[in-house]
UniProtKB/TrEMBL annotation:
Region (Disordered) residue spans: 1-32
Provenance organism: Arthrobacter cavernae
Keyword Phosphoprotein: no
UniProt keyword annotations, A-Z: Cell membrane, Membrane, Symport, Transmembrane, Transmembrane helix, Transport
Recorded GO CC terms: plasma membrane
A single MF term (Gene Ontology): symporter activity
Protein name (Swiss-Prot/TrEMBL): Putative proline/betaine transporter
Pfam family, one: Sugar_tr
Record's subcellular location: Cell membrane
Amino acid sequence: MSNGKTSMPAAADPSSLGSQRRPHSGDEVSKDTRRRVITASFIGNFVEWFDYAVYGYLAGIISSVFFPEADRQTALLATFGVFAISFFVRPLGGFIWGHIGDRLGRKQALSLSIVIMSVATFCIALIPGYNTIGVWAPVLLLLVRVVQGFSAAGEYAGASAFLVEYAPANKRGLYAAVVPASTAAGLLLGSLLAALLSTVLTAEQLNEWGWRLPFLLAAPMGLIGRYIRTKLEDTPAFLALADKEPVKAPALAMFKTYRKQLIIATGAVLLNAVGFYVILSYMPTYLSEELNFGAAESFLATTIALASYIGFIFLTGIASDKFGRKRMLITASVLFVVLTVPAFILLDTGNFLVIVLVQILLGAMLTLNDGTLPSFLAELFPTKVRYSGFAVSFNLSNALFGGTAPFVATLLIGLSHNKLAPGWYLVAASIVSLIAVLFAVETSKKPLQDD
């Protein structure tokens, strides 16, 4: 490293490969390696969004634990405010994790991020409530959420890049769909646990200690994910850069050379950012707090919708490989513009079957975007800045509009006294995403960019 010569990226050291020939593309990787790659990518996102799900689904209880002196809506706003503030550090995390991922390797970044993320999530379960330590309770909650947000900034982007670079050329959409499927699986488990706890525990037990139980699961799940990731080689696309001079500042190179792609990517993510957190995270709170639907029924409806969402995600991944990323993303935006508000009107019927069907519809529409977006974003940028381009665009849009979505939805309802406000917010996000995607080029049928 100190001999004055350009050094090879750490993760690209071929010594660990022995005498085996290094694969140059995902098409040359064995099926066993691909299975381990899929598992490793799945677990990290699963843990991350399991935490977000539990926090969102138990927001009403968490608000009473950390903000007991405020009125109901103010406490909810404060709880979602903490949720949103933790997202503001994600663009910074995107820069740092992108730099690590593009300079040292996708494996290095993902192995480190999952440890930090799991520890931070576990710590939420250990924070005393407001009645025990006063104002320090929400302060500690905020600090832990910020650490969690920072570590999560590299997870979605890194896992997507990892899968796309390992995938066969004609199945990048399907492989990348594992990432949103894992996030939905995390939300699904969070929903199931929240529903179970709400059913078997009394309100007093849930407020005193029951809400902490799901967060304790993060530590063992994170350790399993870390172990699997350390056993993998880095991606063929990244290893192929070993003989080339590495980019010293990937983020700077991205802003200098790939500004158009960055703007398109940030805009395209907007529907994902708002839609994901409104439909799959905030919805149980919306149904129970705003529409006075039963808490157990709200969790159950969301659980059913999440299960269907996971199936639709993989169908979307396959369809994006066949019909193209751009066509799928445009279709998603148009459907949301046309159908979102009518769907929210139907949610207010109070009929359980109608609510479940509406949530399934909204989830299916969202998969057209979510199932396509990981491969689309990864293909927009060349290998040398792929992690940075994905991480910065994805986290910037999520910081400004995703993490704030539950807060904004609650605030809009309070200001407008209109329960349809979250639906109109989704329509606005869809229009922005539609405009951004219209300026994009189709990437699904092209080889990954190396330079």
